[in-house]
Specification:
There is one protein chain. The chain has about 475 residues and is an alpha/beta fold. Helix content is about 40%, strand content about 10%. It has 16 helices and 14 strands. Strands 1-5-6-10-12-11 form a 6-stranded mixed β-sheet. It is globular and about 65 Å long. The structure holds manganese (II) ion. Manganese (II) ion binds next to loops.
Length: about 475
């Protein structure tokens, strides 16, 4: 065997991208060493490239069926992709071979628990289909206790005064009364359910809209956006492009505030669905736990119902298309098709609805398997054809953290915007938002830094399964 020496490029700085590069070079020199694949798989796991991590772990096991870390890594990749049964099988193998490994035991037990929980949820799901959790709640009958001193809805309706008071209240880390949260959620669900899956807006020459990317529970940074760019209003419209929740500790505060503005300015304040407005992601990345800790399981269920009605894409002046993830795994998708997507559900594993929430651009032409293991990556030629076929100028998407808060790729045809600065309290990235004016529809970028927040990192509550904080979205 060739003596390829690979010095460990981390842990001084957790530079997983460099680790990937070094192991890739090592693999080029010796493609039959299971350890290289196993180690690169770990670096992919840490950067949340679960699709690549899975492929490398499988390759490692293929080369050396006795290489136990390969099973570990494959299990972790499958876990992250929500393929629990496949993960359980590999954890079982690890536990058999290493009966005294406490960490392996813990992961095995945690995974078994999740498999049972899923089975239980499936069993009761048929019962609940098409029924709302609201039917089992008496919202009107909920009483406001005398000691409650927070903002109050007047006749159950949101006003600007209410929202201003709410934002101040939230900054002091206080909790809005559950009755008001329920009332807001019931109303916003009705409002969203009226909308098509593709929402079209038009700006005249004097109007402008602000487009924000991922906010991920970073409430204090959201407040900073409003500080810098003004509160939402009919003359200061906003589009928030998905991934409002998970990761950050203040997802409830972010989503309730955004829902409040949606109710106040339904035609001038827009919310699109991200891949994190889904049950599986909320279970793994914090939102479900946060809602249960701050309120209850039923309230999480109502959030989930609201998320299912979030539109999937927006088109501005029939020229700029906005979605959270990106374009499609297949050619020939039309705006009409997007408009007609039956979106009131958890997204499927493949197809246009999945792609809109999950895909990423890539620099080379064509398509390739996604580094995330869901949907695909699309190249500049795919973007150009899609835009030509649909008579559009360019797309704006979010979904990936960018050092500068935004990135322009595909010869200007694909713009990424990300609005969670210093993502997960550790990435050091800037945030950005975009101004689009009706006069020319060219993207104007505004960057901002993270503000100090009383945040306690809760990046991944399933910490035993995701031992490192992670970086994609
Ligand atoms: Mn995302």
């Amino acid at each position: 065997m060739l003596g390829v020496v690979v010095t460990c490029p981390f842990p001084a700085v957790k530079d997983y991208d460099r680790a990937v590069q070094y192991y890739t070079e090592a693999i080029a020199l010796n493609p039959n060493n299971a350890i290289y694949y196993g180690n690169r798989s770990l670096a992919y796991l840490r950067t949340e490239c679960y699709g690549y991590a899975l492929a490398d772990a499988s390759r490692a096991i293929h080369i050396d069926a006795k290489y136990i870390k390969g099973y570990y890594r494959r299990a972790a990749s499958n876990m992250a992709l929500g393929k629990l049964k496949a993960a359980l099988k590999d954890y079982e193998t690890v536990v058999k071979v290493r009966p005294n490994d406490k960490d392996a035991q813990m992961k095995f037990q945690e995974c078994s628990k999740l498999v049972r929980q899923k089975a239980f949820e499936r069993a009761i799901a048929c019962d609940q289909h098409n029924r709302s959790v609201v039917d089992s709640l008496d919202i009107e009958g909920m009483t406001i206790e005398d000691e409650y001193s927070g903002p109050q809805l007047q006749d159950g309706k949101v006003s600007l005064d209410f929202l201003v008071e709410l934002m101040t209240f939230y900054k002091e880390q206080k909790k809005l009364h559950r009755k008001y949260v329920y009332q807001i959620l019931v109303q916003v669900k009705e409002t969203l359910a009226q909308l098509p899956s593709l929402v079209e807006v038009s700006l005249d020459k004097s109007q402008q809209v602000t487009v924000c990317g991922d906010t991920h529970g970073q409430f204090y940074d959201l407040m900073n956006i409003f500080q810098l760019n003004g509160l939402p209003s009919e003359s200061n419209p906003y589009i928030f492009n998905g991934d409002f929740v998970d990761r950050g500790s203040f997802s409830v505060e972010v989503i309730v505030t955004l829902c409040g503005f949606k109710l106040l300015y339904p035609a001038h304040f827009h919310l699109l669905r991200g891949n994190h407005e889904t049950d599986t992601m909320n279970q793994m990345y914090g939102f479900e736990g946060e809602v249960k800790a701050k309120y209850s399981t039923q309230m999480f269920q109502l959030f989930s119902e609201v998320f299912q009605w979030l539109p999937l894409a927006m088109c501005v002046n029939q020229r700029v298309l906005i979605m959270h993830g990106g374009l499609f795994s297949e050619d020939g998708v039309t705006l009409e098709q997007i408009r007609n997507i039956e979106r009131n559900r958890q997204p499927p594993d493949a197809g246009p609805m999945c792609d809109l929430l999950w895909s990423d651009p890539q620099p080379q032409d064509g398509r390739s398997p996604s580094k995330r293991g869901v949907s695909c990556q699309f190249g500049p030629d795919i973007t150009r054809h899609f835009l030509e076929e649909n008579g559009l100028d360019y797309i704006i998407r979010s979904h990936e953290v960018k050092a500068e808060g935004y990135e322009v790729t595909h010869n200007g045809l694909c713009v990424t915007v990300f609005s969670a600065p210093n993502y997960c309290d550790q990435m050091g990235n800037k945030g950005a938002y975009i101004h689009l004016s009706g006069s020319d529809l060219k993207p104007k970028f505004h960057q901002f830094e993270a503000v100090v927040s009383p945040s306690s990192p809760v990046c991944c509550p399933v910490s035993a399964l995701h031992s490192a904080p992670s970086v994609s979205s």
